[in-house]
Structures are given as structure tokens and as C-alpha cells.
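Dear colleague,

As promised, here are the two records you asked about, laid out in our usual form so they can be pasted straight into your sheet.

NAME FIELD: protein one
SEQUENCE, THEN STRUCTURE:
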Amino acid sequence: MSMDSVSEHEDKLRAMAERRIREALDSGEFKVDTGPDKQLDLEENPFVPEEWRLAFRVLKSGNYRPDWIELASDIENDLAAWRTAADRHFAFLRRRLDALTADAGGLRRMREEVAALKLRHARATTYHARMMDEINQKIHRYNATVPVTSLMRPTLSADEEMRRFADRLPAYLNY
């Protein structure tokens, strides 16, 4: 391939990238905000081919994030919400049991209250397992779209996570 044909090829790629960026800007897919408070980031990524650097720079400056990065954020948010829901559930169970044992009248209602707490825990266990499955599905989608295998994430181990969840159950409710 001659130098002229390489240069011609690069020009075509650059023109195609610029056209795609213009179309995305025109359609409102992303907005480039370069007002007085915002500066264009001119740092070049050495792993991006030369012919794509301008396009990547414009996308980065416009705060455009690829789908796999958005999905990674969703996974992190879901994991945090999942853990928080489990923490709230077990804190509620402990508070209810503490209130029952502290109240003399609570001891008379103990059997009914324990049955209600066990039912609540069964529903929480189902919710916990369903959320774990949904997070694993997102992790599978993420792993299928992430551009570098070193960024892939392991899925949650259903057996291990459900064992951990069950281990947190207060002993009084575990009979």
C-alpha cells in the first residue's frame, strides 16, 4: 500500500468519524458542552488509533459514556442497593426480636410474632435471590460488551451468597 493510499484511507476514516459525530450531535444523542466553565480535554489516549482520536476526544468532552460503562455503574448501584436491603432486613428482624423479649406482653405473642418474622424472612430471601439473578444478568451483559477481557467481572455465586444471607438470620428464627 503506497503512502498516498494510506493517507487517503485515513482521510476517509476521519471524514466518516466526523460525519457520525455530526449526526449524533444533530440528533441529540449527546451534547457537547464547552462553555466558559468547561475545557476540552486534549489528553490523547495512546491506545486509541490515530484516526479515531478526534472522535473519542469529542465524545469524552461531551460526557458520553459507552453502554458498558453505564452498565458497570448500574451494577455497582444494584450491588449497593442489594446489600443495603439485606442489612435493613436483618436490622428489622433484630429490632423486632429485641422488642419482643424486652416487653412482658411480647413474650405471650412470641409464637405469632416469630411466625410473622419467618414469613417476612422467606419473602426477603426470595427477593434477595431474585436481585442476585438480575445483577448476574447485568454482569453477563457487561462481560459481553466490555472491550477488554481484563475488565470482565465475575458473577455472584448463588450458593455462596444465599449461604451468607442465611447465616445472618438470628438463631432464634432459625429453628
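NAME FIELD: protein two
SEQUENCE, THEN STRUCTURE:
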Amino acid sequence: MSNLQGNYTLPWCFIGDFNSISETREHRGRFSPARLPMEEFQSWTNTNNLIHLPITGAEFTWANCRGGNRYTWRRLYRVITNQLWLALCHSF
């Protein structure tokens, strides 16, 4: 995605499971999430000037479905855009 972003100056909207959280508030569970993947994800979005659109509805989009205190929730599914895409959507 970084190559596409760098090679084409177009409106972008990435939708799906990024398999990473961007901050600790996007995680609920017994153990704290690893910091390095969060930092790398934030670095990628910041480097490419991407915007995480806010969500409505459920706060978390994934669960590991384990029992008891091993249960974990995360926000993995998201919509990320660039400024060109937002400007295009607001022009209609």
C-alpha cells in the first residue's frame, strides 16, 4: 500500500482488517498489547498522511472468543483515507 500511495497521487480509501491496533484504547484484555506493532502502524499512517475515520457502533471489531480472563477485544477493522479522498467526498 505504501508503494501505491507513493506512486499515485490519487484519492485513497483503505477499508478492512489491518490486523493491528494504533493505540492501547483499541484493545481490551488481560495483557497489554505489544507497543512495537502499534508504533509501526502509527508510523505508516503518519508517514503517508493517512486519516483514520471515526467509527460508530461497536467499539471493538474483533474478539478471540476465548473464555474467562483470556478473552481479548480489539479494533482491527477500520477505514483509512488520505486528504484527497476526504476532499472528494465533501465536494458532492
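A couple of things worth noting about protein two: Helices lie at 2-7, 35-47, 83-90. Residues 2-86 form one domain.

Best,
R.
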